[in-house]
Amino acid sequence: MTNQVYYRRWRPQCLADLVGQEPVARTLKQAILRKRIAHAYLFCGPRGTGKTSTARIMAKAVNCLNPQDGEPCNACRLCMAVNEGRALDLVEIDAASNRGIDEIRSIREKVNYAPAEGAYKVYVLDEAHMLTDAAADALLKTLEEPPGHVIFILATTEPHKLPGTIVSRCQRYDFHRITPAAMAERLTQICQAEGIVADPAALHALARNASGSLRDAENLLERAVTSLGTPLGLEQVRLLLGLASEERVRALVGHVLHGRVPQALTLLNAMATEGLDLRQLHRQMVDELRELLLLKSGAPEMVPQAEEVLREQSALITQVPLERLLHTMRLMGQVNFRNDTPTALPLELALIEAAQGEASRDSSASTAARPAAVGTAAAPPPMARRPAASAPPAQQAARRPVAAARPQPPAVPAPSPLPPAPAPSPQTSVATAQASSDPAVRLEQEWDGILKALNRQKWRRFNLGAMLRNCRLRRLEGNTLTLEFTHRSLMERMEEEMDNPESRRNVLDAITAALGITTPLNLAFTAPNGPESTDKPRQSPLVQAALGMGGKILEEAEERHE
Question: Which residues pair with 152 in a beta bridge?
């Protein structure tokens, strides 16, 4: 027994020992007391919350020779057999490795045999969602009407993957994540029984790092005791887990919220140089921002911090608007460490954008609101046209100005036979150049806005906003737009995406809305290492109508006349 790990040695032995699952324990206890035992149960919830332990407690309680107020005595021979793993009437099956129809047929044959010792034979199917469809169908009849001496208990972390026919035949009990306070209390009991001296703050840090799983918290405690010994302090636990101190995390968040970019980057890289786990640092920052958001929203009772910490947090956000907190929280939530990035670059980008994003947007808004200076023509801001690129065609037509609804004059007007007008002033020439209505010029000016609008849309296969960034040359000749890609493979991907009528319509709508024209455009694609690909076969009105109704061109071939 002394060589067992903590989570096995301190596994709950009765319903009263379950941590954080009081509603489940109370209901099962009343069912045992009143002899209202169901033939099938479904225990579902996150890992490490006590599903399998509860199933074993149920197996002891229904067969105990000396039950005590709905609880097993843990002293009779049947309870001892379950505790020692040698009970014949408790059959535990790992459905992840025994998921086929043959294993279920074996269970159907054996359930008819009477229990060896107790009153009930209990079958526990762990990870029940891993059963195949055929195995689940084979289990249905037995699960619905088993012999009177059989109890089925299905445990799963993903109940949504179970067929509805299985779920409807069971009594469902949901196990919830355990709160850090409840886990810290349980860790304190274990330390007292094991003779371990530990700082309560250290145990609380272990509990918070376990993400609601008591088994993970007990494993972390054993790892800390094995590595660091006793007494166990907070700084030692932080060093072991790669955690930063709460004061430094709060200081880093404060630099970001108040726009102090150099200080934020300096502190972030100092913590990264010390070897702190960047994933853990990101998680700590998100937790800190959440607590600040709750305080700013008027819910301080939901923040599990001491009074002095609450005062520090309240002082930190006194001058910070709620919108700034929300903006920073969204950016931090988008940080992606899935590619196992060894540097702090994802966090650095998020911190810089969070610290400067609001200021840059405010300055842009004030610049747009200022009237243009004398002799200077202010071009319309790109942001005013970006929503139209991603809106449906009907909305775009409604949003276009009246002037843009008329066809634009040719790029090079014919010489006028009238006498030459007086030479315009330099200021007028500058304004005329800035307000040029040449579609080819406006295409270059609005290209970045077009890419951002396309990047926000969901396409069939490829992200066109990202693909079009590799378009090195754009030529608008008449009503044909030629896009030259850096490689033939990119051109072929663009052609494949353009076979989808909806994708083609969205691209053309984004371009025409940005240029302010209503003339339909044709797209042509080319690459330096491949022949030019055009849309000429698609210019036929019949082909366009078929594409608009969801059709797809399977093959394009020219007729050969002999």
Answer: 40, 123
Helix then strand then coil, in percent of the chain rounded to 5, is 55, 10, 35
pLDDT at 178: 93
Find tokens 């992606």 and name the residue.
336
Q: Same structural domain for residues 338 and 205?
A: no
Q: For residue 184, how many C-alpha atoms fall within 13 Å in the half-sphere facing its CB?
A: 15
For residue 270, which amino acid is it?
A: A
**Which pair of structure tokens corresponds to residue 511?**
């371009």
Hey, which residues does 151 pair with through a beta bridge? 122
Q: Strand 522-527 to strand 530-533: parallel, antiparallel, or no bridges (unpaired)? A: antiparallel
Which CATH number goes with the domain that contains 237?
1.10.8.60
* Residues 382, 513: Cα–Cα separation, whole Å: 11
Q: Residue 124 — φ and ψ, nearest 5°? A: -110, 115
Q: What tens digit of pLDDT does each residue of 473-498 get?
A: 778 877 788 888 777 777 887 888 78
Classify residue 312: in a domain, yes or no.
yes
Question: Residue 22: inside a domain, yes or no?
Answer: yes
Tokens of 359: 């200021």
Q: Are 442 and 516 in contact (CB under 8 A)?
A: yes
H or E element in which residue 537 lies: none
pLDDT digits (tens, 9 = 90+) for 500-538: 777 888 888 888 887 777 777 788 888 875 544 444 444
Residue 133: inside a domain, yes or no? yes
Task: Measure the CA–CA gap between 552 and 420, rounded to whole angstroms.
Answer: 54
With residue 429 as reference, give the H or E element that holds it. helix 426-434
| Strand partners for 524 | 482
193-213, pLDDT tens digit by residue?
999 999 998 999 899 888 899
CB-CB contact of 144 with 107 (8 Å): no
Task: Give me the phi and psi of 94, to 5 degrees please.
Answer: -85, 105
Same domain, 148 and 219: no
Quick one: 215 and 260 in the same domain? no
Residues 6+ apart with CB under 8 A from 169: 40, 140, 143, 144
The letter for the amino acid at 216 is D
Torsional sign, CA 500, 503, 508, 509: positive
Domain presence at residue 315: yes
Q: Whole-structure pTM over 0.70, yes or no?
A: no
CATH of the domain at 264: 1.20.272.10
pLDDT single digits (tens) 215-243: 999 999 999 999 888 889 988 888 888 88
Residues 289 and 165 occupy one common structural domain: no
Residue identified by tokens 């984004």 is: 510
Token digits for 41? 């149960």
